[in-house]
Here is the input.
Amino acid sequence: MEKELIILSVESSCDETSVAIIRGEKILSNIVLSQIDIHAKFGGVVPEVASRNHTKYILECFIKAIFEAGIKIEDLDYVAVTNGPGLVGSLLVGVSSALAFAWAHQLKVIGINHLLGHIFASTIASSIEYPAISLLVSGGHTDLIYLKDAFSYQVLGVTMDDAVGETYDKVARILNLGYPGGPIIDKLAALSSKPDAIKFPTPLSPKFHFSFSGLKSAVLRKYQEDIKNNIPIIKEDYAASFQDIVIKILVNKTKEALAEYHPKTLILAGGVSANRALRRAFTSEFTNLKLLIPEVSYCTDNAAMIAFCAKTMIEHHKVSKDLDYRLEIFSTNRFTDL
Ligand code: KG4
Ligand code: ZN
Here is the structure.
């Protein structure tokens, strides 16, 4: 029997410092130290503060991940690290630590694109049958992506302005709900007794592309008018009405893409895929093909998804055999250039 690959992975592209270890299909450890409480005071991620905290937490993550996995460092086969896209200072901490660790232990390093990491989080619990389409919804991205196979991607549509996660965060700021807005709006919306109380307009955008800034402005206008006219603000109804439109847009655009491309698998990925109403909508709408939605804890940023992406690249021989500790790599960044 072939030896199961043991991969240590590092993720630090935004405000989560994370190190994971997988053996074959099994996650042995996945340490995620979130800086959410630190950035909440500022109402969003402050890049310089994020980098400083990554430097503070990264060593602890390595130690905890190795300890929890119960492996010896000599057992490791590869190191994988997110090398983009993301905040450059934050990425630098993860990449430098991964390189230093790999150099010290003479391990091979694989650079992984963060977005592909999100998509391959779906392989933690299942496998992708190709061709596939992924709707990637995160703090910085709203992308519809066609995957011919594990290595050929075509970006069908992107957001023309704000990303969907960013819109959740900005709408939460308008309503003074706190940061990050996504999980708060998710919970508030579920408490609304009149989810269709407010009629927000559905923004128009060209085929497969998205636009959310008009919706965000509509929420702001309505909120300011209600305040001016002394109309009580029922935040639960605002949250539910806003979320309802967002989900309709995401479902409809995905339907259009499925009708044209007929994939075998649909993958919902990225931080916003943790949203309960969105998960429910996808589960009830898309029943005619394989639907993969990662478990909630693997939707937001974590290193386990980076290891699973690396595993696919290695298994398909997309990583050269004589790779050394220098960060060459299977350049997944071509994905972002599309
Ligand atoms: O993928 P992610 O962790 O980081 C990026 O790569 O951007 O996504 C973070 C985004 C944030 O905008 C956050 O508000 C949103 O995901 N998010 C959610 C939920 N959980 C996180 N949005 C809606 N509902 C949620 N439950
Ligand atoms: Zn992410």
Observations:
- The first helix runs from residue 36 to 40.
